[in-house]
Amino acid sequence: MQVTEKKNKTLPIDCKHFIDGQYIPSFNQKTFLNINPATEEVLGSVSEGGELEIDLAVKAAKRALKGEWKQFTSNQRAAVLRKIGDGILARKEELAALEAMDTGKPYDLALEVDITRSAHNFYFFADYITTLSSESHMQDQTALHYTYRRPVGVVGMINPWNLPLLLLTWKLAPCLAAGNTAVMKPAEWTPMTATVLAEICKDAGVPDGVVNVVHGFGANAAGSALTEHRDVDAITFTGETKTGSAIMKAAAPTLKKLSFELGGKNPNIIFADSDLDEVIETTLKSSFMNQGEVCLCGSRIYVQRSIFDEFIDKFVAKTKELKIGDPFEEGTKVGAVISKEHYEKVLSYIEIAKEEGGTILTGGSRPASIEKGCFITPTIITGLSRDSRCVREEIFGPVVTVMPFDSEEEVIEWANDTHYGLGATIWTNDLRRAHRVAHQIEAGIIWVNTWYLRDLRTPFGGMKQSGLGREGGIHSFEFYSELSNITIKL
Ligand code: NAD
Fold this sequence. Notes:
Elements: H1 2-10, E1 17-19, E2 22-24, E3 31-35, E4 42-47, H2 51-66, H3 68-71, H4 74-90, H5 92-103, H6 107-131, E5 136-139, E6 143-151, E7 154-158, H7 164-177, E8 181-185, H8 192-203, E9 211-213, H9 222-228, E10 234-238, H10 241-251, E11 257-261, E12 267-270, H11 276-288, E13 300-304, H12 305-321, H13 340-355, E14 359-362, E15 379-382, H14 389-392, E16 399-405, H15 408-416, E17 423-427, H16 431-440, E18 445-448, E19 467-468, H17 473-480, E20 481-489
Parallel strand pairs: 7-8, 7-10, 8-9, 10-11, 12-13, 12-17, 13-16, 15-16, 17-18
Antiparallel strand pairs: 1-2, 3-4, 5-6, 6-20, 11-19, 14-15
Helix pairs in contact: 1-5, 2-9, 4-6, 4-8, 5-6, 6-7, 11-12
The protein binds nicotinamide-adenine-dinucleotide.
Nicotinamide-adenine-dinucleotide binds at residues 158-162, 167, 185, 187-188, 217-219, 223-224, 227, 238-240, 243, 246-247, 261-264, 295, 394, 396, 422, 462, 467.
């Protein structure tokens, strides 16, 4: 297959830091290996950054804030952002192949979702910045008040491995649109697309030092160094809730502005009056897309009792049809999970489910036909109580639990019985019920009769322990800019 051949030709792919417009290794030449979770082959080596590399990058970003970047008008920044979007699309097959090799996700998914949406992030924020208006208030005849937005400064970006380029560009596009500079730390598992993005930014005319990438690990490594650095003005982080908590603590002494997109355990509530075929089609995606490694996946499925058996029969049958295996093979819907460690973690939850009295209706192990790689067959579990660990804890893999419910009040209580509050999906054709339930579900992103439908103007983020702040449209600018109010006495 063409893409697979292209992939083989490019190995090994070594990832260096990108600091002040140049690719550089670590000072001590330290590296770690990047492994393809689908094949277990070594993709290449990755420079391992620490305090010194972070400091170099932050210094470059701080200098760049005062350099030619400062003179860019919003129209000029928008033009650069559009060029970055074009640059991503021009290299979309290459980026999709890198993303598939790094993460184990299907190549087609990477191409259609991760890479295409990454380019769109830049196009969207390019348009947004040129239409952003300021507030002004006339106070009788005495004073004119108006708001003035300026960049926050050097923004540290700490990213997860599940949607590497998509989530990184979701941060970088508004960050640049607002005139900031960035030091990005990609997840250690997925360094490749961030490395290429730095080059695309340079080619698009981003001045040196504005975009920097430092590879490395999180705790007591590059991640901590970025979080603790006194010249980093803000940290935007997407990842696990417990990491968010550690970052908050580490950022406290320097009082950085923080934006967190954290974990979730999202309910998918299916009422008996919904269109079952549509429900099944979308629920397959909301359960198993990207191997279930999407923070928005609906891993707790609640089905009204009168349609429970029919739902289960159809859902299990369709799940068994999902093609699992080589991410580069056409038609593959489920690839490998990110790493051996994560593979073990997901399988351990399936064992816990068995111990807790759950019934595995399909999946529950690696596919018998695949010998290598971190593959787990899409897994559906029933018979668990609401207190079971598999129902309460984020598994972040191709595993869902399904439970029957009787009343609206009951399912709302169950849906909210969690420390998380990221997303929720409600399926019903009763308009009043849709609104009534949506208003009571404690989540930042609620879909009715759909899932993963996005409009980048809308607020994205979680409540409770799923996040801090919102991203998207004006909400991104609330984070990436500082607002001053100027009052003129008349
Ligand atoms: P993670 O928290 O383990 O790691 C994320 C990043 O943080 C990595 O770059 C890592 O190196 C870094 N890191 C780890 N410890 C650190 C520390 N002490 N200081 C600074 N940096 C540190 O998360 P993950 O396993 O990569 O990603 C999966 C998690 O991300 C899941 O919980 C998922 O729900 C969440 N997620 C949330 C969203 C959202 O929008 N809410 C989106 C995607 C993923």
